[in-house]
Here is the input.
Amino acid sequence: MLAVRVGKLYFYKRLKTCGGSGLFAARGIMKGIREYTDVKYISKLKMKNKYKAIEELAQVFKDSPVCANLDELVTALIEREKIMSTGIGFGIAIPHAKIKSVKDIAFAIGISKKGINFDSLDGKPVHLIILVAAGERQHKDYLKLLSRIMSYLKNEPVRQRIINAQNSEEIITQFDEE
Here is the structure.
C-alpha cells in the first residue's frame, strides 16, 4: 500500500491486487477507488432495460457486508433514476443512493457489450454502469467517490479497457491504476 498526503487527506494505492474488499474507515482519509470495490462486485449484464439492469447489478451485493437490505437499495436506486437519469454520457451511467442499510460505501461494476438505453445526456447507449451504494452518514466520502469515478472514467482508453476486459480480474486491475 502506498500512501500519498495531499493537504489534510491521505490517498492510498494498493500495489498488489489481493482478495477481499479492503474496506477501512478513518477520519480524513480518502482511499483509492479500488478500495471501494471487489471482483465479486462485477457483473456482465444481461438486462436491456435500465431499471432491470440496476436491479441485476445490485444483486452483486447480496450476502455481502455492504448492504443489509438489498430491496431498500434497489428501490432507492430506481427512485433516484426516475428523478433524473444517471447516464452521464460517454457510454457511462452511475446510479447511486445513500440509505440506512448500507454499512460500507462500495461500488459495483456492470458491463453491457450491446448497450442499454439509459436516457443519457448524449443520447448514446450505456456500456459501463458503476453502481454506488453509501450509508446515510457517508455523505463526504460518497461525493468524493462519485467525483473521482467520473474523473477517472473520462479517459476513453480506460473505459475501453474496462468494457473490453475478458474477466473480472482484468476489470478490477483498471481501478488499481487510478
User: Anything to note?
Assistant: The first helix runs from residue 50 to 58.
